[in-house]
Amino acid sequence: MIRNMTDCATLHNGVKMPWLGLGVWKMKEGEEVGQAVKAAIRAGYRSIDTAAVYGNEAGVGKAIKESEVAREELFITTKVWNADQGYDSTLAAFEESRKKLGLEYVDLYLIHWPVKNKYKDTWKALEKLYKEGYVRAIGVSNFQIHHLEDLMAESTVKPMVNQVEFHPYLTQADLRRFCREHQIQLEAWSPLMQGEVVNEPVINELAQKYGKTPAQIVLRWDLQHEVVTIPKSTKEHRIIENAGIFDFELTAEDMARLDGLNKNHRFGPDPDNFDF
Fold first, then answer.
1. How sure is the predictor about 14, in pLDDT bands with cuts at 50, 70 and 90?
2. Contact predicate 219/189, CB 8 Å
3. What's the rounded Cα separation, in Å, for the pair 118 and 104?
4. Least confident interval from 29-38, 53-62, 166-175
5. Per-residue confidence (pLDDT) for residue 45, from 0 to 100
6. In angstroms, rounded to a whole number, what is the distance separating the alpha carbons of residues 184 and 43?
7. Binding site for substrate: residue ranges?
8. Cβ–Cβ under 8 Å, residues 165 and 175
9. Mean pLDDT value across residues 196-200
10. Does domain 8-259 have CATH number 3.40.50.300?
11. Catalytic residue (one of 54, 109, 130, 134)
12. At what angle do helices 214-224 and 201-210 cross, to 10 degrees?
């Protein structure tokens, strides 16, 4: 059972990845992202998730440096953007991300979206980075089952993580099952439905029952499904609040009620119909 902030999922290569992290999507480069990262680290978070396309890797790197927490205690994720996909261009993009972050290595490097006819070459670049020790783990983001099968048919290293949109309106049961069977750790982006959790009656009802916020109910649901979660907030009190999910447990019945909210609704793009 996941009981505290320091608990980690163990990826199939043995690397430990915190169950809870801070996502920094849409955070402004500079002070906004820097303050959020520092607040999260102060609150006990050790995992930070950024991406080249977010345009805030330098701010994340600066905040890491200023936080004075030992590098090996942190788990830093970034992603290669669609326009940079391909073998050589991915290697160049990684080097640029690494320099912006100011890090010797990255803990997890992901392919941001499954760009057709490119993601296999991109993956070969990730395998090279992994084998050379520049990244401790490699994975994908927004990959459906057919993308994963296609990728794994020709790869020498299996993805360790698949980061996808996951929340009570999009429970992705088949994908979750597939990833579990293949030892690919599922990770949730937009776990709080871009703020819509507060408008769902069942979630509010459970929040009252457990004396928790709607966000805490959903983040706990993630953990009990063994899905890594990276809620985004720029406000320190919310960052602290989002971490208050280790002192209670949802019953099997309440987990099932949340599962029952699924309507296959995406707040973000559909990986199969995305204009890459």
1. very high
2. no
3. 27
4. 29-38
5. 96
6. 28
7. 112
8. no
9. 94
10. no
11. 54
12. 90
> Tokens 């992202």 sit at which residue?
33
Q: Give the pLDDT confidence score for residue 26 in this predicted structure.
A: 76
The predicted structure's pLDDT at residue 207: 98
Task: Map tokens 């459970």 to a residue.
Answer: 206
Helix locations, 79-197, DSSP H: 87-101, 119-131, 145-152, 173-181
Instruction: Give pLDDT, residue 142.
Output: 96
**What is the maximum span of the chain, computed from C-alpha positions, in angstroms?**
53
Report field, pTM of the whole predicted structure over 0.90: yes
3-state class percentages of the chain: helix first, strand second, coil last, to nearest 5: 45, 15, 40
DSSP class of residue 7 equals -
Cα torsion through 153, 157, 160, 164, rounded to 10: -40
* Rounded Cα distance, 178 and 230, in Å: 21
Which residues are annotated as part of the binding site? 112
Whether 169 is catalytic:
no
pLDDT at 276: 63
**Rounded CA separation 233/22 (Å):** 8
Tokens of 11: 């990826």
- In this model, does residue 30 exceed pLDDT 80? no
Say which residues have a Cβ less than 8 Å from residue 14's Cβ, sequence separation at least 6.
none
| Listed residue (211, 184, 196, 227) closest to 20, CA to CA | 227
Q: Could you state, in order of their start, the residue ranges of all structural domains in the chain?
A: 8-259
